[in-house]
Amino acid sequence: MLRVLAWKQKWWLQLAVIYTRYLIGGAFVFASLVKLKGERFTQVPGAGSPFHSPEHFFETLYQSGLYWQFLGLAQLVAGLLLMTQRYALLGALLFLPIIANVYVITISYDFGYTSVITGAMLLATVGLLAWDWNRLRVVLNQPALPAPTALSESRLWELIGLVLFLFTAGYRAFIDAYNVLLWFGGCIGVGAVGLAIFWWGQRRPSQAATAEIAD
């Protein structure tokens, strides 16, 4: 466990965790809004599709009404919590049963390579929970272990998460004919700004220290 805590101090791993939370959380937020709006996940009605087809499955969920919107709300809450960074552990705990269910659905029906994506999201969620295992030990009646201050506790990453959430939710809520590449490009741009601010903040102390040595 001490070795795991040592790895958690590596800044590049911490950044990988932060952006993994943004990535899978944002994907859930993006997928949730169409359900909350009471619309079909695909534009093609599946009522006349074969019984064991993905189109028929989605049509059945859509026709359920309240349950369809409940799924959207659950995805929205889990994605938002992940993106806040502050409540990311709770978000991962909520995310796990949802994405596990989605993964089993994609391998139960003929979703093609979609199961690869959902499987990767499932593995990422398990990895996020493993990252916080020092806090989750209490579920096995083991004391939680304190960890050093993490980068994710910075206000910067909370702000970036809020901007990503608002951009994703707003784009999906108000635009029906969405462009996935446009949305993803916008998210990359926001994430790049966060990285730039982080690097600039890291360089300032080193530059100040160099100036003091020169003086």
Please describe what this structure looks like.
The chain is 74% helix and 0% strand. The chain contains 9 helices and no strands. The longest helix is centred in the C-terminal third of the chain and has 35 residues, at 180-214. It has 215 residues and is an all-alpha fold. The chain has one domain (2-214). It has helices at 2-7, 11-36, 54-63, 66-84, 88-108, 114-131, 133-136, 155-174, 180-214. Helix 2 (11-36) runs antiparallel to helix 4 (66-84) and helix 2 packs parallel to helix 8 (155-174).
Number of domains: 1
Q: In percent, how helical is the residue content?
A: over 70%
What's the order of the H and E elements? HHHHHHHHH
* Structural class computed from helices and strand pairing: mainly alpha
**Termini distance?**
44 Å
Q: Count the helices. How many?
A: 9
Give me the Rg, rounded.
20 Å
Strand count, sense and barrel status of the largest sheet are: none
Molecular shape: globular
Q: Give a count of the beta strands, DSSP E runs of length 2 or more.
A: 0
| Contiguous runs where pLDDT drops below 50 for at least 5 residues | 207-215
What is the average of the pLDDT values? 86
Strand content: under 5%
Give a nutshell description of this structure.
This protein is mainly alpha-helical and 215 residues long. It has nine helices and no strands. The N and C termini lie far apart (44 Å).
What are the SSEs and their pairings?
Layout: H1 2-7, H2 11-36, H3 54-63, H4 66-84, H5 88-108, H6 114-131, H7 133-136, H8 155-174, H9 180-214
